[in-house]
Amino acid sequence: MPTGATNPRILHLTLKKRWFDLISSGVKKEEYRELKPYWHKRLLNHPYDFIQFRNGYAPEAPTILVELLGLSSGLGITEWGAPDGVSVYILRLGKVSTPS
Fold it and tell me: Which domain holds residue 76?
């Protein structure tokens, strides 16, 4: 856990290896989710400080903890996994750290 973070609010998300690796390396600075009631309820009703990304569902799957800088909606970057021409929730990502 990053220093100075007391009772951080963490959103847990699972990713495919391609997106996990791009976020882990600091290349991908946004993550996208559909503008659907499920994500509306999950993202807008809870202010999060961090996102814990998990690469797959295996018990020993690697994880990273990423600072969540903000949430907005709009068109994302297709090279980073956003659908072309479709508005999505955009989670702006900050500092990447590995959980201890």
Answer: 10-97
55 DSSP β-pair partners: 15
pTM reported for the whole predicted model: 0.88
**Total domains in the fold of the chain:** 1
Q: Indicate whether 4 belongs to any domain.
A: no
- pLDDT tens digits, 51-100: 999 999 998 999 999 999 999 999 999 999 999 999 999 999 999 997 64
CATH code of the domain in which 62 resides: 2.30.130.30
- Give 30-62 pLDDT, tens digit per residue: 999 999 999 999 999 889 999 999 999 998 999
Whether residue 2 is contained in a domain is answered as: no
How many CB atoms lie under 10 A from the CB of residue 42? 15
